Amino acid sequence: MKNQTLKKIANTIRGLSIDGVEAANSGHPGMPLGMADVAAVLWSEFLKHNPQNPQWFDRDRFVLSAGHGSMLIYSLLHLYGYDLPLAELKNFRQWNSKTAGHPEYGHAPGVETTTGPLGQGISSAVGMALAEKMLAARFNKGSYKVVNHHTYVIASDGDLQEGVSHEACALAGHNRLSKLIVLYDDNHISIDGETHLSFSEDVLKRFEGYGWHTQRIDGHDYDAIRSAITLARASDRPSLIACRTVIGFGSPNKAGTEEVHGSPLGKDEALLTKKKLGIPAEPLFYINDEVLKNTRKAVPDGARAERNWQELLEKYQKARPELATAFHACIKGEVPGAALAIPEFPAGKVATRNASGKVLDFMAAKIPALVGGSADLTPSNKTFAKGQTPFSVKNPAGQYIHYGVREHGMAAIMNGMALHGGVIPYGGTFFVFTDYMRPSMRLAALMGIRVIYVLTHDSIGLGEDGPTHQPIEHLAALRAMPNLSLIRPMDANETAVAWKMALTRTDGPTGLILTRQNLTNYDRASQGMAPAEEARKGGYVLTEDKDFQVILIATGSEVEIAVAAKALLNAKGKRVRVVSMPSTDVFDRQPAAYRESVLPASCTARVAVEAGASIGWYKYVGLYGRVVGLDHFGASAPYETLYEKFGLTAEQVANAAGEL
Known about the structure:
42% of the residues lie in helices and 14% in strands. By secondary structure, the chain is of the alpha/beta class. The chain has 3 domains: 3-301, 3-Layer(aba) Sandwich (Rossmann fold); 337-520, 3-Layer(aba) Sandwich (Rossmann fold), CATH 3.40.50; 535-658, Rossmann fold (3-Layer(aba) Sandwich). The strands form 5 sheets. The chain has a 6-stranded parallel beta sheet with strand order 10-9-11-12-14-13, sandwiched between helices. Strands 1-2-3-7-6 form a 5-stranded parallel beta sheet, with helices on both faces. A 5-stranded mixed beta sheet has the order 16-18-17-19-20. It is elongated, with a radius of gyration of 28 Å.
């Protein structure tokens, strides 16, 4: 495309961005004004996409990691023919609009991931590129390149300062994710002022150290932009292109300053900027016919590209039917019924982390899309299933990822993998280290994507490693997060059910909270206990006496304490119901009648027991109930000693019940 045409497209993007921010009287005009030239070249000459089908699997992914500059992507989506009418741009940042203040996955078509929390977009993009490389290695055969696309990112100084980007980008370099191309908006400005106030590292040297291909260009020079992207596409490494730009480009009085980062230009400055850029003052949201004619070429071009891919798939199906069937299963995220037919565990003693490992051994080969990993805790998390091989430069088809000691990076990368599609990711670490993962977990919950966290060493039950590794407040804190499902199974068979729940849930992430220490796996039938499948309801009556007088509620490792407490109370003539509550959020979603059947209002004598913070349990035990928990940090000692010293015993639970 001629540079003069690109300039008109870029200035149209600038005009739309100015008007959107002015209409909302809030927003971030500086980045869209600065990066419009780069975006115009990328979207006009390189990006493979189909505006009529934003979910086409083999499309290039575009991630606006600098999500505060959201008017850039909204302008692009409208201009290039996505179903985002001009009325939505005029409704920027308003109630019920598709054009939220920061790009929201699932709101506007063509938004690949929710961004705004800096560092998240670029880190999730690593996951997208990783999924592309893995699937390409597994399914591309000969001339059948059924997976063949790039992931492009526009990132800011802020993205590269956030720690999560260091973790993810280091892993990208290590694994030579060559189809990842980051266009870095190197404008030298942050909210506080010039970046030299706090940021003086040599970014290119840093990325070279990660193993990336790097370039530095003038971000307003169309020939330089075009050449840099072409070189990046030819590299065998991920690429960072530092685009030296002027924030607020075109603004006579604010360009190059922090004033233009996060505030409207103001009416007078907006008019001056438009005049300088050759944009008519009226009408607002001006788009000339020539620009639209050129940008809307993306619609037939994209449809043609997808048709060609579909024709390739048809030939692939005939030539490689087994691979094609597995490929389609991956795209659909299918979990075959055979994978969920997990054999029942026999009675005995087993840690739920070990049970989880056995479940994975059974399931992994039966679910083509399943991809595992751990943040350098594979032997402890039991996440490496039989038949899996490690993903690496030499083995890109491997379905197990060694993330290294990068919990936050792992969580963000898994988000990208899930969003990319073709992959159902799970990743393991110790439960306490969700402190490092929380921002990415929150985004997974916000976007409603299927990501599975295998979180072992779930309490003081890990013992001698001590309070730094013993989660106390983590259950309560993560239960407060909307749309994150947590399951803390009481035994091996509940663990199997937990995996089934996690894999069949498609509208949000799930955390499996698992023990280091062995737990009793009851012979439920002979002991008059409910089957483990009841755990699907989140909470259920495990065992009870007729005309019970008190209800004991427990999760995970504390259920057997409640069962032992029942025996002590029975010996004193007390009749007891024991409720296993592996997932409070799943239980809370059950019909009111079911919840009442498990926790009837007529029985106010209730005791909850859990090796964690007590806050949150009063919702279930009420004003007159008791909670046997931990509202202080742990200690270093054998776990049996800790449970005794901290009062997490059957005797303590029985005493609490006896006082009601």
